[in-house]
Amino acid sequence: MNGPDKPPCALIVMGVSGSGKSTIATALANRLRWTFEDGDRFHPASNVAKMSAGHPLTDEDRWPWLQAIADEIGRVCTAGGHVVIACSALKRAYRDVLVRNRKDVRFVFLDGSPALIAGRLAARKGHFMPPGLLDSQFKTLEPPQADEHPVIVSIDAPVETIVNNIVAKLRT
Ligand SMILES: Nc1ncnc2c1ncn2[C@@H]1O[C@H](COP(=O)(O)OP(=O)(O)OP(=O)(O)O)[C@@H](O)[C@H]1O
Ligand SMILES: [Mg+2]
Fold first, then answer.
1. For 132, phi and psi rounded to 5 degrees?
2. What number does the ligand 1 atom closest to the CA of 23 have?
3. 36 Cα: distance to centroid of ligand 2 (angstroms)
4. Directed axis angle between helix 133-140 and helix 114-123, to 10°?
5. 126: three-class secondary structure by DSSP
6. What is the model's pLDDT at position 3?
7. What distance in Å separates the CA atoms of residue 3 and residue 24, rounded to the nearest whole number?
């Protein structure tokens, strides 16, 4: 699978809703001077319509979305670019579609307790969170396994510290 043997051209910042993907991926991209992309941008119009209507996505809905992100990674890396992508990637099967066995794509898993994340979500402005969403996110979450060579960081720290920790772990 993807391993630390090849310098990455894409980092996928993953975790449950409210774990800090948008915040950390943006700060990490700024630090590395890489491009930032929000994975949500790659949803087909049919998924956007479904989500706007308040209907949950099925895995069947997700495959073309994940393929579109994998396509973008392929484009960027082939062009010699570098990108940090925020994408929840909660299940192993989703991550396998994203990575396509590339050695130059790595996951950064934002690890935090439900209590910490619930507190951050409650304080977050301009976002409506359906009740029970965080619970269902944790039920769905399959934390990345050793064979995926993830960078795992605790989110119980200031943004700057988390970014420092990610950069340090990427070097190892
Ligand atoms: N290290 C941190 N310390 C304090 N607050 C944080 C930290 N990281 C993120 N936050 C805050 O927590 C909230 C959730 O972060 P963010 O929106 O980046 O999460 P997300 O994973 O992108 O969520 P979603 O999946 O819903 O898009 C935001 O209000 C953000 O400002
Ligand atoms: Mg986000």
1. 90, -10
2. 18
3. 12
4. 140
5. coil
6. 46
7. 22
Cα-to-chain-centroid distance, residue 153: 13
Give first-to-last CA distance, the chain, whole Å: 17
Radius of gyration from C-alpha coordinates of the chain: 15
Q: Which residue has the tokens 């991209």?
A: 29
Q: Where are the beta strands (DSSP E) in 41-104?
A: 83-86
Q: Name the phi and psi angles at 79, rounded to 5.
A: -80, 0
- Closest-CA residue, ligand 1 atom 25, reads 17
* Residue 20 DSSP symbol: S
Strand partners, 49: none
* C-alpha 20 to ligand 2 mean position (Å): 7
Q: Which of 115-119, 122-126, 147-151, 166-170 comes out lowest in average pLDDT?
A: 122-126
* Closest ligand relative to 158 C-alpha: 1
* Neighbour tally for 69: CB within 10 Å: 23
Ligand 1 pocket by C-beta < 6 Å: which residues? 15, 17-23, 86, 88, 120, 124, 155, 158-159, 162
- 3-class state of residue 94 by DSSP: helix
Q: Mean pLDDT throughout 45-66?
A: 95
Half-sphere exposure in the Cβ direction for 22 (13 Å, CA):
8
0.90 exceeded by pTM: yes
